[in-house]
Amino acid sequence: MTIYTALLQQADTLKKTHMKDLFATDPKRFDRFHLKTGPFLLDYSKNNITPETMRLLLQLAEESGLRQAIDAQFSGQKINTTENRAVLHTALRNRSDNPVFVDGRDVMPDIRAVLAQMHTFSDAVRNQTWRGATGKPITDVVNIGIGGSDLGPAMAMQALEFYKTDAISFHFVSNIDGTDITRVLNKCRPETTLFIISSKTFTTQETLTNATTARAWLTAALGDTAVEKHFVAVSTNKTAVQAFGINPDNMFVFWDFVGGRYSLWSAIGLSLMIGIGYDHFIEMLTGAYEMDMHFKTAPFDKNMPVIMGLLGVWYTTYMGAESYAVLPYDQYLSRLPAYLQQLDMESNGKSVKKNGHAVDYKTGPILFGEPGTNGQHSFYQLIHQGTHLIPVDFIAPVHSLNETGNHHAILLANMVAQAEALMRGKTADEVRAEGVDEALIPFKTFSGNRPSNILLFDRMTPRVFGALVALYEHKVFVQGIIWNIDSFDQWGVELGKQLAKVVLPELQDKNKPLAHDNSTNALIDHIRTNRLNV
Ligand code: G6Q
Q1: pLDDT band at 362 (very low <50, low <70, confident <90, very high)
Q2: Rounded to 5, what percent of the chain is helix, strand, coil?
Q3: Staple 467 to which of 62, 144, 291, 510, CB 3.0 to 4.6 Å?
Q4: Ligand 1 close to Cβ of residue 236 (< 6 A)
């Protein structure tokens, strides 16, 4: 029997087994199914698993070549096969003295040089030696970027807000919707605003359009010569940065071996470094590095990203889950689900194996989430009583950075209670015993047996944060290896981009002939007739 068939059989059994009974028959279930590493405690006992399930999943990891894949990633092999690239965001946070080779060349000296350049620049902005064209200190930093050049620093800036300087306001502009940049520019003054144009390729339509609007806004007030003091770029494309008019001395480079959605650790984190300072940024890298070392060296049964990744595969491929919720009980992590949506869904939203053949199993789930307790008052209903199986990750700090009365105890009580409720449910007899009207009993009954992980850490620090993001990166990696897909390309975003280039001139010229389907033609015609007649 193949491991695939064995796991399908295991899933058939587990679908008929209630977790309540598994807890009742195994007083050591928590001991068996929890892990500690670095700052984290992961309780994964409230999952639809038995020791046999985990044994089979660990066998699946071995048979999928996960060990070799981890080594291949860290050693700079070109594991992003469709783009023929190494995948080395881990080198960006390599805090050891060990070299990391790509095509026979150690990339660490370049990485350290850019970190030093970021250090000097972020210090200069923070201590006000870097000044605007009229000699005023910078009060507003605007990062213009999208996708991987936006979500990481934007999410991290919120997560680490406690450590951020109050002297500077930070803004993130990503959307091509003019409302995004207009709202930010309305809050800023040209003399005291610094723009960081973040784009790996420096060809992204949204970013270049927003950057052009920002430059026009600045030069209208201060003239062309002001650009030098108010614009810096983060990119791999020096020629395009220069063509845009940014002095190459004000450019921070990164490399092809850093994927967009994995680029928070590179110069794409420049706004964050200005916000939290170099030392905190290094702490963040250190936390991620510690998680990297854990992932690289811990045996699979004690390896947190491996365990979390295997559980992800278990639910998606074997138990029939279509989605997955990440629910941080930490207001600082309110953008984490949005960040993880890109990390997980852009990486593993694939239906073709590495050999080009279609998969015949389910791959990456639909990820969603909101911070608790807010979500409890909206979509949790479906998780508790709907018809879908939705595995959940609850994430929380044991201590708040803002201990306020008994708020944090209430927050944590809610999270623990949610996980318990999802697992136990409430039987009709239990509802009846409460004296509920017989007609209402079906509505007030909860099936339970709904899985969740709880991930606890002590308190939010840059180091914990770095480790947390790295944990999820590696979890996604594990799943991609087991599904035998390329987690590092993103061809799926291309088609829409290409078609938008065709549609744009058609929207701007009423007489341009249209050759789309009937619906697309009608929509273009409606929009252009209305817009061009105003
Ligand atoms: C991430 C993706 C994508 C990318 C953006 C921005 O992995 O590749 O989100 O980050 O499209 O690209 P640029 O940084 O090249 O502007």
Answers
A1: very high
A2: 55, 10, 35
A3: 291
A4: no
